[in-house]
Amino acid sequence: MDDVDRGKLTSNRSFMVKNITKTMTVVDKLMDERIITDGMKQDIEAERTPDDKNRKLLDIIPRRGPKAFQAFLKALVETDHDFVADRLSPGAGDKYRPVQTSSEKGMVSPVEDNYSIHEPEIVLPKKWPTEKDCVTDFEVKKCGRNAEEMWRKESNDFYKMRSKPRGRALIFNNFVTIDYREKDANSKEWKTKLQMREGTDRDEQCLRTLFEQLHFDVEVRKDRTVEKMKEDIEEEKKQPLHKAADCFIVVFLSHGSADGIYGIDGKVLTTAEVKRSFNNKNFSSMTNKPKLIFIQACRGGTYDLGANVTDSYDADLADARKSMGAMNLNIPQPERLDEADSKVEKSPSYADMFIANATTQDHVSFRNRKYGSWFIQALVYIFRNYACQAHLLDMFTLVNRLVSEGRALDNESNIAVAISEFTPTLRHKLFFFPGLTEVMTHSPEN
Asked: What CATH architecture applies to the domain 3-99?
């Protein structure tokens, strides 16, 4: 390998360590070209973390002869790392990307030069949740070449998502370490109001993995009272990173009521308060930028028994009981002025917000003790598979569909169902562009 190519590898090493996500697939391609030997592959596989695997690969490549650099570029392109190859050698993506028909690609890119959206090929599980699909070890699918072209262009059709990190993701995870009890006013007996939320750690782990791969700086706050959640929110809004960020995400994993989200003290942080705290007026550093609020909590104590659409009720009931027994399903308590004469530029207070709930108003949501909640696991499944080609509203339509596939039993052994719900005030389409992170505008330390 000549000094010029070796210099390109050296100067872009940190970028490649963080952005090559299919290391062993790249290695397999290099083995096909006889650049990497089986022994070298084993050395790379022995490294503990994905970053360490990338470092080991990058240590080996410069020592593998004059054809190694071009073979490496080709392997990157063939494993959907076009943007990494182009970083090393502009035009490498066009040079090595084989011409394919849409059917050969399997997944159609969401955009062309005019940003028209193609319907992605959707393959969803028939039942939800399942052990096969609710995994914690996953890789978010990266954008293809056409999405990268859109990402590089400025347009009012979609929100800017170019920063690295994109912004902050704040997760509140109220596990409820000890069941919260209150004394009944009539019987004077102590009754459990909030149970431990087994399975919520699985949700937290999956969300952290997802948001980090979507290029967000993630922070988790656990077991908070309502007062502490309010303090955390005010502290969060003062984070300097928001001024340069492109997006903000906050997630609540907790019990809930018709009014809002329970703290571990049995008090309620109302949904209205959350929305007000993060609107354009009260979160000025994120004005005109998307603010996403995801709430995994019940919104009342009513079970949705659904509508019978087939004659297979008995079979569905048997399947639900079997599923609950096998999966240890936990049905929780309710987590039981036409014109304005002004020249001052204004932005609507509640514009650019997106609020998604695990269930509809007054209904319970469902959580599996082993695999996590129906809603959060559906969100993670859809985002990791389709964020590379679909915008937020389309993805949440798929989340709704997936949540609706769940089946559980109410307290009287009737089949219960659920459907998630979202309310957008977004003014542009929101694509996450996973894998596209060339622009570094700020860092978590700033």
From this structure: Orthogonal Bundle (1.10)
Q: Which helix (H) or strand (E) holds 84?
A: helix 82-88
pLDDT in tens, 155-206: 788 999 999 899 999 999 999 766 677 767 677 676 767 888 999 999 999 9
- Tokens found for residue 316: 């569905």
pTM of the model: 0.69
Quickly name the fold that domain 145-336+347-424 has: Rossmann fold (3.40.50)
- Characterize 301-340 residue by residue with b for buried, 16 or more Cβ atoms within 10 angstroms of its Cβ, and e for exposed: ebbbeeeeeeeeeeeeeeebbebbeebebbbbebbbeeee
Helices (H) and strands (E) in the chain, counts: 16, 15
| Distance from C-alpha of 145 to C-alpha of 151, rounded to nearest angstrom | 10
Closest CA to 229 of 185, 277, 177: 277
What distance in Å separates the CA atoms of residue 430 and residue 391, rounded to the nearest whole number? 5
Closest listed residue to residue 383, CA positions, set 205, 160, 207: 207
Is residue 315 within a helix (H) or strand (E), and if so which, with residue range? helix 313-327
